[in-house]
Amino acid sequence: MRRERVLLTAAMLLIGVFGALLPLEVARPEPLPLWREGNGVDANPDLERLNRAFVRLADKVRPGVVQLRVSLNPPAAQDGDSQRPTSSRGSGFIIHPEGYILTAHHVVDGGKDIEVRLADRQRFRGQVIGTDPEVDVALVRIKSPKELPAIALGDSDHAQVGDLVSSVGYPFGTESSLSLGIISRRGRSLATGFDFIQTNAGASAGWSGGPLVNVRGHVVGMITMASDRGNMGFAVPINVIKAMVPRLLSGEKIVWGWLGVRVSELTLEGAEALRLAPVRGVLVSAVLPGQPAEKGGILSHDVILAVNGMRVDNPRELIRIIAGTEAGREVNLAIFRKGETFKLSVRLGQKPKSAERREG
Questions:
Q1: CATH architecture of the region 257-350
Q2: Which of 129, 211, 273, 341 is the least crowded, having the fewest Cβ atoms under 10 Å away?
Q3: What are the residue ranges spanned by the domains of the chain?
Q4: Host H or E run for residue 341
Q5: Choosing from 177, 204, 208, 302, which is the catalytic residue?
Q6: What's the CATH fold of domain 156-249?
């Protein structure tokens, strides 16, 4: 027994000696993480509230924004035109639970079949109720078995430069997107004529016809144009569209006014030659024969200072007002000629199909 205890003790000593001679196993450190998890403790409460407000805005507006996929009528065969598009895509927004939708005229122009896709991916066949190419607006209807989420229309006359706005649409045919920006230039919406609302909210291909909404989620404009880079959009003021909707619904054809002049911007040198100070108004470069301007007594080298009391300082403003007034109505023009200022009343006519766009 004593001998066994001695052998056991010797064995344990040998194990200890050999263990001491073996290299110790190096403890593996815990791997360092490649990122740091955020815990929300350092969140700015004001920014958090702002963030939640934008999320609520998106949740409120996006269900009422739709995508339009339009199959175009096949173009007439022409040399070199084999690559002309046979379809187009755009956006729109529901204004009535029974399926009435506003979009841009150029989205549905020449359309053979219109497919409307809702935010929940339901598809419906769309029918054009009315359209106006001058304002670039169209009214489309779909028939759904249930009421649809309509977006409220706001008041574009109260929109101001600096107001926060969001544009909503289907860029490049993808899912609906919301882009945040401000009103960069206020659109003018008066009794006659209008000017576009300019915004730096995103607007790309496929965005045409989508709504421009304020922080309340109310539509203040409809996107109809975008810059080449997509960082600037132009919207028709919603008050202009609201005035037209009843007429589009009835199928009434609106004929817009035509004056029959060629106009240009009045330069400092031109104003000095005409002895007009301070510089203001739009120069009449030419009067087209047989058109309303000639019948109303306008002459070449006249300066148009105002239309119906609204001052005009560049050709774009004049053309917008005239083109936004219906044919057959009279406009009162303030004219400067040979050192004198007087008024002329001209009844607008219908624009000839052969006329150039730059002619007023």
A1: Roll (2.30)
A2: 273
A3: 156-249, 257-350
A4: strand 340-347
A5: 208
A6: Thrombin, subunit H (2.40.10)
